[in-house]
Design a protein that fits this description.
The chain is α+β, with helices and mostly antiparallel strands. 32% of the residues lie in helices and 18% in strands. A hairpin with a 5-residue loop joins strand 7 and strand 8. Helix 3 packs across helix 4, helix 4 crosses helix 7 and helix 4 crosses helix 12. It is elongated. The protein starts with 7 loop residues before the first helix and ends with a strand. The N terminus is likely disordered.
């Protein structure tokens, strides 16, 4: 889910500041804008965009240096917290092995952030819902759904992923564009375990393709305010210049100005930076593949792998290259 903030001053900046400096999108903290984060229904809640994992700065760790993050002892608050995260992050209708993969990813991320310190869900940077919210969301299905989620968490109790002896940055997103993205193309920091991998079955996910249409006038107005200068032929003013290996737009020229694909995604509220552009007579159409930044585990990809009979460790090992699984001492 980031470019490591190396300046010591910024290591002490809280998670709220991280939300403010998002380079991919300026996104409010999820408890004050929950409607932007979740689709809530009788089956559960899902953070389709995992926006809390969108920022440049991700090293909070309560002011600890990365070398100080090693976790050996169990955090007594962790497992109940992870139940609330899984319930918020993945539809309970997903396969149990996918839910278990989500539990391990969420636990790994949390240990990387807080270690054995007190858990305050609003400060960790993961979506979280309380038991009361689960009851409201699930209604008569609460007991069945809670058991499914809690079983997935309990079956992986205390388990996390490490690389180089440290909890990994367990990034995840809703749906890839067919391949996941390498970390350096999202947050500039190259992480050996966050590389581009195949996730082609994501194409079967609901809403895999999405469109944003703008009138030419609105498009010109939006990007003129960003410094673009347009000619009489707008088709010649839009050019995708560079894509990553996973097909996400890294550079696009609009009105003579070069933008990052992630910035255009943010400006136009596209579902991903894996997009194409077409020009009609009076409108500009952006067609996006997938949903989210694309790095790490695809949640829909995890569910498709689970449906094919893969267990949670195979799922996680696919999306996080070369990681080891360890159990925190209880």
């Amino acid at each position: 889910m980031f470019k490591i903030l190396k300046n010591k001053t910024f290591r002490y900046i809280g998670v709220y500041s991280v939300y403010v400096i998002f380079t991919v999108a300026a996104i409010p903290y999820f408890l004050t804008a929950k409607e932007d984060f979740f689709i809530l229904d009788k089956n559960g809640a899902i953070d389709l965009d995992n926006k809390f994992l969108y920022g440049e700065g991700y090293e909070n760790n309560n002011g600890k240096n990365k070398s100080d993050v090693s976790v050996k002892e169990e955090n007594p608050q962790m497992e109940s917290y992870i139940i609330g995260v899984v319930a918020a992050e993945m539809p309970v209708s997903f396969e149990k092995e996918a839910l278990k993969a989500q539990a391990v990813a969420a636990r790994t991320y949390a240990y990387r952030q807080v270690g054995n310190s007190e858990i305050k869900p609003e400060n960790i940077g993961q979506a979280f819902i309380t038991v009361d919210e689960m009851k409201r969301n699930w209604g008569n299905n609460f007991e069945k759904n809670y058991k499914k989620v809690s079983d997935a968490v309990n079956d992986t109790k205390n388990e996390i992923m490490i690389y180089g002896g440290e909890p990994i940055l367990a990034a995840f997103h809703s749906t890839s564009g067919g391949m996941t993205e390498s970390s350096e193309n999202v947050w500039s920091e190259k992480l050996s375990y966050l590389i581009s991998v195949d996730s082609h079955e994501d194409e079967k996910a609901p809403g895999f393709l999405s469109e944003v249409k703008l009138s030419k006038a609105d498009f010109i107005k939006i990007f003129s305010e960003k410094g673009a200068v347009f000619s009489d032929n707008i088709k010649n003013d839009i050019l995708i210049m560079e894509r990553t290996a996973a097909d996400y737009v890294s550079k696009i020229k609009i009105g003579g100005k070069i933008f990052k694909g992630s910035d255009v995604r943010s400006i136009l509220s596209l579902r991903s930076a894996n997009f194409t552009v077409s020009c009609g007579d009076n409108e500009i159409i952006f067609t996006s593949k997938g949903y989210g930044h694309g790095a790490g585990m695809s949640q829909y990809g995890a569910n498709f792998m689970a449906l094919e009979g893969n267990d949670y460790k195979k799922i996680l090992a696919h999306y996080y290259y070369g990681v080891e699984f360890i159990s925190i001492k209880g």
